[in-house]
Amino acid sequence: MSLITRQGHVTVVTLNQPLRQEAVDEISSRIDDAMRDGIPNLVMDLSQTPLIDGAGLQWLDDLDMEAADRGGCVRLCNANELCIDILRMTGVGDRLDHYPSLPAAMASFVR
């Protein structure tokens, strides 16, 4: 099961499985609940995510648009090379900021 924690005004989601439809189904309602509490700033920690498929890409894109509509954003961190390539080749990586570590992603919210 993926871990969802709150660190200050940022919700951190640590995905521990491939980001496919099954993962989206598992965590969507939990993230929706977390996003209701204030500005929806999210960091998706992909350190334990070996792969992102089309459903996962669409969900990330939709999640970012929903967060932006409410004054927040989604940031990614710790993605492996395959996930980075998938994000870049599909263009989703052009719309979502990626950071090499969780502390770097968290720090980006205070700039």
Question: Can you offer a commentary on this structure?
Answer:
Strand 1 (3-7) and strand 2 (10-14) form a beta hairpin. This protein has one domain: Transcription Regulator spoIIAA (2-Layer Sandwich), CATH 3.30.750.24. Helix 1 (21-35) packs parallel to helix 2. The model has no long low-confidence stretch (mean pLDDT 93). The protein contains five helices and five strands, in the order ββαβαβααβα. It has helices at residues 21-35, 54-69, 81-90, 92-95, 102-107; strands spanning 3-7, 10-14, 41-45, 73-77, 97-99. With 111 residues, the protein is an alpha/beta fold. Strands 1-2-3-4-5 form a five-stranded mixed sheet. Residues 1-109 form the STAS domain. This is STAS domain protein. It comes from Neorhodopirellula pilleata. One of its GO terms (molecular function) is anti-sigma factor antagonist activity.
What's this, in brief?
The chain is α/β, with parallel strands linked by helices. Helices cover 46% and strands 21% of the residues. It has a single domain (3-110), classed as Transcription Regulator spoIIAA (2-Layer Sandwich).
